[in-house]
Write a structure and sequence with these properties.
Blueprint lengths: L1 E7 L5 E7 L2 E7 L9 E7 L4 H17 L3 E5 L11 H16 L5 H26 L5 E9 L2 H10 L3 E7 L6 H7 L6 E6 L7 H10 L5 E6 L8 H17 L2
Parallel strand pairs: 4-5, 4-6, 6-7, 7-8, 8-9
Antiparallel strand pairs: 1-2, 2-3, 3-5
Length: 248
């Protein structure tokens, strides 16, 4: 892991950009993090490039820092300045055509759009996690927060170092990912915007039902994709405070 830029933010938070075997990423650490007092870590999932997402990611990282947690993210494969994934781009165009015409979104489009992203992103997240936990100021436990929700599901299913996940139900879910959800037993907090114009509500509800966790919460709020109320972030912060501190 090579750190290529660093800047201080408010409240003693340090932001560092890094590169790891061609994977661009960002790490935020609270003032309390040190080799003698290492902190838990939240992985911040998101649906796009780092430059466009950075204001929202910084806000989420600030919430985590208030709780005493470091947070980190990587750029999604095929997004930002990374090489394009042609199959995903074609599926995304097919999705737009279906939505614009009012046609149902077929399982084939969903699979071609989501499964290549999952296959590419999850190994990168695990490689990044290896490197982050090698830093002296970070010791875990580890949580995952955000989307693409199918990436979070696969990561929670295969990564034993995750102890809790807060998932954003804002993207389509392949049937095979819903089956993987049955393997997940860690605590879950799932955020759903009830009127999300780009999301299939029933698909999100079916996924929540499939999770094998005995402790799972669905927070559904009225409004579209960008209308998430501020208190939803506060509720998610309490979820991670409860589980990451308890697991230490």
């Amino acid at each position: 892991m090579e750190f290529i830029a660093e800047q201080p933010l408010d409240d003693g938070v340090t932001e560092r950009e890094f590169a790891l075997t061609g994977i661009p990423g960002m790490l935020w650490t609270p003032a309390s993090a040190s080799p003698t007092s290492p902190v838990p870590l939240i992985l911040l999932g998101h649906p796009g490039g780092l430059r466009g997402m950075s204001p929202r990611l910084r806000a989420r990282a600030a919430h985590a820092a208030v709780q005493g947690f470091a947070s980190a993210t990587i750029e999604l494969p095929g997004a930002g300045g990374r090489p394009r994934l042609e199959e995903v781009d074609q599926a995304r165009a097919d999705l737009r055509r279906a939505l614009d015409s009012g046609e149902p979104v077929s399982p084939d489009i969903i699979d071609r759009l989501i499964l290549p992203l999952v296959a590419a992103a999850v190994p990168e997240w695990r490689t990044t996690l290896d490197a982050l936990l090698g830093l002296p100021e970070i010791a875990g436990p580890v949580g995952y927060s955000g989307g693409v929700i199918a990436i979070g599901v696969r990561l929670a299913a295969v990564e034993p170092r995750l102890v809790a996940a807060g998932l954003f139900a804002g993207s389509f879910v392949p049937a095979s990912i819903r089956e993987e959800a049955r393997q997940i037993t860690i605590p879950l907090h799932v955020l759903l915007q009830w009127d999300d114009e780009g999301n299939d509500r029933q698909m999100a509800l079916d996924l929540f039902d499939a999770f094998g966790s005995s402790e799972k919460t669905l927070q559904a709020n009225m409004g579209g994709h960008t209308g998430v109320p501020s208190y939803a972030g506060e509720d998610a912060a309490r979820f991670f405070a409860r589980h990451l501190r308890r697991a230490r």
